[in-house]
Amino acid sequence: MHPNAQTLTRFYTAFAELDADAMGSCYSLDATFDDPAFSLKGQHEIAGMWHMLCNAARGNGKQDWRLDFNNLQANDSSGHVHWEARYRFTATRRQVHNIVEADFTFCPEGLIASHRDQFDFWRWSRQALGMGGWVLGWAPFFNTQMRRQTRAALDSHLAKNV
Prior knowledge:
The protein has helices spanning 3-16, 20-24, 43-59, 121-129, 131-136, 140-160, and strands spanning 27-34, 39-41, 66-74, 78-88, 95-106, 112-118. By secondary structure, it is α+β, with helices and mostly antiparallel strands.
């Protein structure tokens, strides 16, 4: 198995176990992360996001958490993983099944340099938010508002856990 594939396997195995420390250790210090909810720079912010999300999943009951990954591919410079998470969304207590395509680049040391998760935000918002997500989840302003809220939650989490 390619060393970068080993990094991704280590990352997603830790994610399935909600081990945010192990997840954060897979990123380079100047890594970037982007998905429909977050745009982050640096290992500190990225690891903080994983800590916040893993804590929420544990708090909602580990029995409601499941992560599966497959189609893992990696070479010297890039990688790809298909992953699916099933969890209870904290704000509404609604069950979510998120289907994600993840793309990566790696630094020479074999750590993640960039990570981009892509998923259908409208599909996610309908599951997580119910009728409000159904009505507004497709709108760009709604996604912008969600990104502001997730950024504020992360900033608060980081301030409390420095």
